[in-house]
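FORM 7B: Structural annotation worksheet

SECTION A. Query
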Amino acid sequence: MERNRCLVIADSLDDAGHGVGVDRGVTVHVADLLPGEQAEVALEHASPHKAEAWGRVARRIGPASPDRVEPACPAFGRCGGCVWQHLAYPAQLVRKHDRVARALAPLGPAIEVAAVVPSPSERHYRNKGKYVAARLGRRLILGAFAPRTHAVIDTVGCQIVAPIVDEVAAWIRGAAEAAELAPYDEATRQGELRYAVVRASAAGEALAALIVAPGASPIRVEEVAAAVARHPAVRGVIALVNARTDGSIMPAEAEAMLAIGQPSLVETISGVEVEVGASEFLQVNRDQAQAIYDRVAVLAGAAEGVRAIDLYAGLGGITFALARAGARVHAVEIDPTAVANLIRAAQRAGWGDRVSARAGDAATARGATDVLVVNPPRKGLGARAREAIIALAPPTIVYVSCGPESLADDLVALTVAGWRVDTVEPFDLMPGTPQIETVVRLHRA
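SECTION B. Predicted structure
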């Protein structure tokens, strides 16, 4: 075998969707190789620090995996998203379950992980699309960065976003080309259109955001915005000026250039109508997110007379699920815009006496409570938030996690502090990806 080639039989998948196998003591990650498949691999990169390398299939050897399926998206393998699309959905669920079980293994053999609750839909579940503007030949494209590069892959035609999101993105591209709004070039820092964001509601209405560079022509931007606003599903268009160079798409300090129509859409979350702007965080798979919120309310024992605190409350999906079951809920969320929307929604629903909320860090949570719900970002709670939770000493904690490994760290700390895990239920929010949400209930021993 040539020095830059090796034989690999994959036995697992990594988070980038690569098959992983070992050859002569080196762990090799191979694009488009599923567990059980064998290939001659052309090595493209080797780690200088450990016995690990990455490569591509040069020649397949033997049969394909019975779990191999045809990817839905034309850009699969190039855009870097949905890296498990070539793996049959039942096999995806098994591997997601295994990921949670492996992560929680330090808690001991008594921890039982339930079967993964599958997503109601494998395709068209994303209610929001984020696009990078670039030039491909003479065409303007909207897409995503290819893995480990800043080359942009055209993703219009994506089968994972809601059809109306893809349609409005194509409309934006056409309008930008017609107005000669030049795509931004990161290398030269020249050009005008940097990103586009499209959000869709369950009712099929859409919001569009154009993120432009400083110095973009207001006339051309207005021309594009006006054209996009004429799409029958679009309820509002905003244009923001983003001067950042760190990859942030819609930073809080972005300056508004113009706004046409409505600034938000109305989504029904846990039975409550909530205003959602283009930048607010909302779970991309609304149906599965609602299943999680409903299950949290059941595990929390939400009922009349129950006091609850909801940390990392966002726009209030869990807060409203708890309140709908009768609990009195105090929500804590760091984003003041989300808090304002949550409070307005609670008041419109007639729950002003049942739901309270404030903007603040989770580590500042205070007050007596019967149940504490936490839904932190992927990195988990962090030391300060864990200390605050331990000080609160709630009888019951319901933890919603999007990062099994950080979840495990937090659960170890909480069990040492006196809680016992009695329920672990994974939910698949993002088919085609390794991502998995996990709902865990803990009782104070």
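SECTION C. Observations
The mean pLDDT is 94. The chain has three domains: 5-61, 93-121+285-444, 128-265.

SECTION D. Sign-off
Analyst initials: ____
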